[in-house]
């Protein structure tokens, strides 16, 4: 199992909850939920029981149906059926793929109240209405999300933990890495952009070092997502599939918002709202809303009619671009590795930065103003961050992502001039070493987005 940041969150839950709350680990398909939970159960408990509801027998399911009012008998039969001896207050019971059997999730209220064991659930598409419409969701449940590997976790998987620490310390100190290390980090970031953070794809990359084989793994995952859409999308399945298939084309456009007209001449936001929610709720995509009046409470002025959708994993995006071909052309992988891709590199770099922000649980928004030339601005991301001139209090930091070495910062300058004291440090993420311009403009290499996502902190 790869080292994952979420493991620390699992430890905190075990230590602080002490059986008073169940934990729901949710995320997109194939992000490694089952593998992580199994390792956690084996490492942190004297005894554990994993019930995988994708393969559980009807006899096991009947226990949940028949003994909800008799917890003692439920546990007696459960241990007899599974052959596992559970130890009071030192055993973990895992409901894997719990969305396939909602009654088990509803039963958690009684199980948690009983208090003798800890309970952890995993699920994909877990909170979509189809899976919970007939049950009462237990209030004794804490949810956390497992995303694809972020770049820092990717470096850990590559046995490059010292480099990961250097990138983080370099960003904190605003001191560029030595040129050889900068080139190495840049190369690995490009490889990460192609491979993505899906554990299966990372494993194939580390074992075979063959992007063609990695591409095959990613295509299998994309096919799984399409099947999920058809199977679980219900009456919105066609709309969900249409949005999913057009994400690469939307990201490739210069527009800073999703163009509904691309879905059809008669497409309306109200008709597709559930489709966008479905993809976001399944963690297949991430939605970035435009804000009308930026302040540290970014969500308060978010315009839900103006947004951009990013793929949850950039490696999958690379393969999704060429979904109609049997494979992704090897020239694409070669050109990205060499920094020579012209057509789609901007959308890939923007998406991979969005992925880093999501991986560390940071919310993000954008700022897009149309008007005359003097007022037009397009800011890729807005984040709330501490700022030393405000005694560490939060300010709004605009973030621009650049895929080329030549660019302007006009939008960042307009943003500072318009919003004044609300604005903290301004960031450019670009394919160059770290540098600082003046008091507040910080130019970071793209690979440093992993540190920006965690919060660089006040200087």
What is the structure about, briefly put?
The chain is built from 19 helices and 13 strands. With 459 residues, the chain is α/β, with parallel strands linked by helices.
If you had to describe this structure to a student in words, what would you say it looks like?
The protein is an alpha/beta fold. It is about 45% helix and about 20% strand. It has 19 helices and 13 strands. The chain has helices at about 5-15, 35-45, 60-65, 70-80, 100-105, 110-115, 130, 150-155, 160-175, 180-195, 200-210, 210-230, 235-250, 270-280, 315-320, 330-340, 345-360, 410-420, 450-455, and strands at about 20-25, 45-50, 90-95, 120-125, 140-145, 285-290, 300-310, 365-370, 375-385, 395-400, 425-430, 435, 440-445. The strands form three sheets. It has a six-stranded mixed sheet with strand order 8-9-10-11-13-12. The chain has a five-stranded parallel sheet with strand order 2-3-4-1-5. The protein has a two-stranded antiparallel sheet with strand order 6-7. The longest helix is centred in the middle third of the chain and has 22 residues, at about 210-230. It is globular. The two termini are about 35 Å apart. The model has no long low-confidence stretch (mean pLDDT about 90).
Reconstruct the topology from this structure.
Blueprint: H1 6-17, E1 22-26, H2 33-44, E2 47-52, H3 58-66, H4 71-82, E3 91-96, H5 102-106, H6 108-114, E4 118-123, H7 129-132, E5 141-145, H8 151-157, H9 161-173, H10 179-195, H11 199-208, H12 211-232, H13 237-252, H14 269-281, E6 285-291, E7 302-311, H15 314-321, H16 330-338, H17 345-359, E8 365-369, E9 377-386, E10 394-401, H18 410-419, E11 426-430, E12 435-437, E13 441-445, H19 449-454
Parallel strand pairs: 1-4, 1-5, 2-3, 3-4, 10-11, 11-13
Antiparallel strand pairs: 6-7, 8-9, 9-10, 12-13
Helix pairs in contact: 3-4, 10-15, 10-16, 11-12, 12-13, 12-15, 13-14
